[in-house]
Design a protein that fits this description.
- The chain has 14 helices and 14 strands.
- By secondary structure, it is of the alpha/beta class.
- It has an eight-stranded mixed sheet, sandwiched between helices.
- The structure holds pyridoxal-5'-phosphate (PLP).
- Pyridoxal-5'-phosphate (PLP) is lined by residues 35, 99-101, 125, 127, 169, 174, 202, 204, 231, 233, 238, 243.
């Protein structure tokens, strides 16, 4: 059978995280592994009401095929939200996608030929690595730290490689939780302004800010070269699979063709429900609830980090999102840590899959959105025990 598969699919490995999540689904395990939003915060009653109201009103043909670009009133709401943030984006520059994950796939389809160079922040979102791997991208990793991307490495790489795309998650990055400073964004934009490279700003976490000032979108600095990806997965519900792409007109035309071929259009019924929900409810009030719960969870995790973990284990600072990014002492790999943690009934994700062809990585990711604070405390206590032993055995 194997000889029947395309080269395209044969070269892509299954997501390592999915494998961990399978193990972590055991209810006895406290999981910091996944990247799930909290189930308790799904606006169930409001979505139920929106659905019933839609059927009762019978105004729209909510069960019919529709256009590829997406439900116009929904795109208008998204455009209005950008306008409030000072970005002049119109509904016709927005394509509704099946989650922002489909946005990544469509961008891969539209831009990447085999071996085309794609710059990617490192550590970087595993789903983006997987999506572009399908199109046989040649990845060039650019390291990110507490304040953003390493500009010197970026400049060097841009001199030698002609990269069509650069992929970033500049707000509360997955996996590291860091955000690019405005200075870093400006420097990246200045560097890119003289080359023919498009920057992808993938922003599923930007609205989940606990503290600090909102940062500027790359769209402010580099409007003609920026592609934005957005998502309702973390602010409303992930099961609707509703996200979007904002792209220049010429790119949008190609994306629409690629989407037509992929699925004709995104689920129209869910688009209508979401639109009704957004019309009848204040999304910011709902997001404020999410912020309040997640920031409390994060504070509890940070406190437990200090209380239970060996002092050689550190983490980067984050002002929002869903993750803490922890490091063991330099040179110590987290490869075996996940298995040891599972034995103590707690799940984490080791750093390795978030890097391009790098091994013996000393980082790991902790998710704080999907566990109650008391469960976080207990999970961190268990993990602390594992870490003391692990460091002792690996020194
Ligand atoms: C950085 C990043 N981009 C995209 C996605 C995909 O999200 P969606 O549910 O919108 O497809 C995720 C999901 O966790 C993510 O972390």
């Amino acid at each position: 059978m194997n000889e029947l598969f395309s080269n395209r699919i044969s070269q892509v490995s299954p997501s390592f995280i999915r494998e961990i999540l399978k193990v972590a689904s055991d209810p006895a395990i406290i999981s910091f592994a996944g990247g799930l939003p909290s189930h308790d915060l799904f606006p169930v009653a409001a979505l139920k009401k929106a659905t019933i109201d839609l059927f009762n009103d019978n105004k729209e043909d909510i069960l019919q095929y529709t256009n590829t670009e997406g439900y116009l009133p929904l795109r208008e709401i998204i455009a209005a939200t950008y306008k409030k943030k000072g970005l002049d984006i119109n509904a016709d520059e927005i394509l509704i996608t099946n989650g922002s994950q489909q946005g990544l796939d469509l961008l891969g389809k539209v831009f990447i030929n085999e071996n085309d160079s794609v710059l990617i922040e490192e550590p970087g979102y595993l789903g983006a690595i997987q999506a572009f791997e399908i199109y046989a991208a040649h990845f060039i990793p650019i390291p990110v730290g507490q304040d953003g991307m390493d500009i010197d490495v970026l400049k060097i790489q841009l001199k030698t490689a002609h990269a069509k795309l650069i992929y970033t998650v500049p707000n509360f990055q997955n996996p590291s939780g860091i955000s690019y400073s405005n200075e870093n964004r400006k420097a990246i934009a200045e560097t890119l302004s003289s080359v023919n490279t498009l920057i992808i700003e993938d922003n599923p976490y930007g609205d989940i800010r606990f503290s600090g000032e909102e940062k500027k979108s790359f769209m402010h600095y580099l409007p003609k070269q920026t592609i934005l990806l957005g998502s309702f997965s973390k602010t409303v519900v992930p099961s609707f699979r509703l996200g979007w792409i904002v792209a220049p007109k010429a790119v949008m035309q190609k994306l629409v063709i690629a989407k037509q071929a992929a699925d004709l259009h995104t689920n129209h019924f869910c688009q209508c429900i979401l639109h009704r929900f957004l019309q009848d409810n204040d999304l910011q009030t709902h997001i404020n609830k999410i912020i309040s719960v997640y920031s409390h969870n994060k504070a509890r995790m940070e406190k437990a980090f200090v209380k239970y973990f060996p002092k050689e284990v550190t983490h980067l600072k984050t002002q929002g999102g869903m993750f803490l990014w922890a490091s063991l002492p330099k040179g110590m790999s987290t490869k075996g840590l996940s298995d040891e943690a599972i034995k103590e009934k707690v799940a984490i994700v080791p750093g390795e899959p978030f890097y391009i062809n790098k091994h013996e990585i000393n980082t790991f990711r902790l998710n704080f959105s999907n566990s109650h604070p008391d469960v976080i405390e207990e999970g961190m206590r268990r993990l602390g025990k594992v870490l003391y032993k692990y460091i002792e055995n690996n020194e």
